[in-house]
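step: validate -> pass
step: tokenize input -> pass
step: predict -> running
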Amino acid sequence: MNLIGAHIGSYVVERGEILIAHLTRMPVPPRRRNPNLPPEWEALCLRMMEKSREARFQSVTQLAHAGSTSARSRPRPTRRRRRCR
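step: predict -> pass
step: emit ->
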């Protein structure tokens, strides 16, 4: 974004429009842009972007706890071991 406006897709958006959208519109869910994103991470991102202050995490500690809880609930990918010849 520059000082006059931003290019979003093929549209030029003025600062006022960006501000109004920021205050009134919900953001695009992250999984719509990246379907490979785990649902738990999307939930964390959406909660961080909530419009209501009360709905967002109240501290970094609270965010870290929620992040570590969701990370522990996901199975770790298994790595294939290479054999040395």
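step: describe -> The chain has one domain: 5-73.
step: cleanup -> pass
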